[in-house]
Design a protein that fits this description.
By secondary structure, this protein is an alpha/beta fold. It has 14 helices and 18 strands. The strands form three sheets. It has a seven-stranded mixed beta sheet. A six-stranded mixed beta sheet has the order 14-13-15-16-17-18, with helices on one face. One of its GO terms (molecular function) is actin filament binding.
Length: 448
């Protein structure tokens, strides 16, 4: 019974939480966190508050006072690897809790990686998302024996402005690092805090808090980017390339991701807020705007005309944006071949997920993860038939003609000599023919 659940999908969170954020600049309310265990709510011990395992689902009650009245928000957080039963239970348990409070609380569903700002803020910058679940979760953090067998773990600390910081476990390798953030590396005997040259104070403070929470009996070493020891590199499989440059430029703005699609006929662009790697859809085209450069990410299943319209849009967007940017290059990327300068903007990027995007011939290819291909206006629209020639055979393949060939004018992409052999006239003479006659001749040679 009770009031109808006020369930809010992740997309609508911005509206709900904007109001909450404005009213709750004070985050000194009380946080109670439960984990879903055997489909019941089990409160997590104080030392584990703010820690979330991606194999579990949780219910969090935030109680605060406004105008001398108690107010409540119930968040239910669902890990990406949590079972369907647990996710469903988190929603039901939230509803029960809501009933217990006579339907007063606001209910908010939180999907892992899309945490709203206020949710991050109530944990005071100490929110950590870890791999694993249930069984592995309750190792007491001071119980070294059990902990030491865990080997090496690395965590990515990223802030989105004051006290909106979260930390997510990432791959333990050099390419996961980037100069804009902090990372916490936990080895069996030692804890390292790696501070990127462009990391802000919030990130440095959160990294110190997270290290303190997870350290057990390990000692902590703070490393500034560039001062890494041999031990640090060997713990993550050796020194390697990672994204550096752009975080150190003077004008750093928050990156923005847009989903570009042509479902409605024309091209539409929709901004994706609080984006993660899961937002990259393999049959569409996405645009990542980093202010100093723009990336057009092409899913393997995206249509070629869709890629073309997207590149046109991106070039126009980069050139005519009223936000004061100077020369802003546009790069085209194929899904699965993302360079560090792109992946660094996605918290805890997963290479295995990216590898699954690659289709067909590209699979075994060693296309390097370079910065992508810089594009200019000559790279969009149909190729100019005067300067781009193809063989008759290439042009005859139905629906598979070479990329960016104008399907209505395939014959113009033939060499003059071949054209004359096939049609018995020059291109200029052919152009003077009546349309029906042109079409009949093209059909005969499978060029229509």
């Amino acid at each position: 019974g009770g009031a109808k659940p006020k369930d809010v999908a992740a997309e609508a969170l911005f509206k709900v939480c904007k109001e909450a954020e404005e009213k709750m600049i004070d985050t000194s309310g009380k946080v109670t966190q439960w984990r879903v265990e055997d489909l019941k709510r089990v409160e997590v011990p104080a030392g584990m508050k703010g820690q979330f395992f991606d194999g579990d689902s949780y219910v969090i009650l935030y109680s605060y006072t406004r105008r001398n009245r108690p107010e409540y928000i119930i968040y239910y957080w669902q890990g990406s690897k949590s079972s369907i039963d647990e996710k469903a239970a988190s929603a039901l348990l939230t509803r029960d809790l809501d009933d217990a409070y006579k339907g007063k609380p606001v209910q908010v569903r939180v999907t892992m990686g899309h945490e709203p700002k206020h949710f991050m803020a109530i944990f005071g910058g100490k929110m950590v998302i870890r791999n694993g679940g249930h069984a592995s979760a309750f190792k007491n953090r001071n119980d070294q024996d059990k902990y030491d067998t865990d080997g090496t773990e690395m965590y990515h600390v990223k802030s989105q402005g004051a006290s909106y910081t979260r930390t997510i476990q990432c791959e333990e390798k050099a390419s996961a690092l980037n100069s804009g953030d902090c990372f916490v590396l936990l080895t069996p005997k030692q804890m390292y805090i790696w501070q990127g040259a462009g990391a802000n104070d919030e990130e440095r403070k959160s990294a110190a808090d997270v290290a303190d929470t997870l350290r057990g009996s390990r000692s902590i070493t703070v490393i500034k980017e560039g001062d890494e020891s041999e031990d640090f590199w060997s713990a993550i499989g050796g020194k390697g390339e990672y994204a550096k440059s752009k975080f150190l430029s003077e004008d750093v703005r928050e990156p923005r991701l847009f989903h570009l699609s042509t479902n409605t006929g024309g091209l539409t662009a929709q901004e994706v807020f609080n984006f993660t790697q899961e937002d990259l859809i393999n049959d569409d085209v996405m645009m990542l705007d980093l202010y100093s450069e723009v990336y057009v990410w092409c899913g393997s299943d995206a249509q070629s005309d869709e890629k073309d319209s997207a590149l046109k849009l991106a070039l126009d967007y980069a050139k005519n944006n009223p936000d004061g940017r100077k020369e802003c290059p546009v790069f085209k990327l194929e899904a699965g071949f993302e360079p560090p300068s792109f992946t660094a903007h996605f918290i805890a990027w997963d290479e295995e997920v990216a590898d699954k995007w690659v289709k067909g011939d590209a699979k075994g290819s060693d296309m390097k993860k370079t910065t992508g291909k810089a594009v200019s206006s000559s790279d969009v629209g149909f190729l100019d038939p005067a300067t781009n020639k193809f063989s008759l055979k290439e042009l005859q393949v139905k629906g598979k003609q070479p990329d960016r060939v104008n399907p209505a004018k395939k014959e113009l992409y033939l060499e003059d000599k071949v054209f004359k052999e096939i049609f018995g006239v020059t291109m200029a003479e052919f152009a003077a023919w009546k349309l029906w006659k042109q079409q009949a001749a093209k059909k005969k040679h499978s060029l229509f």
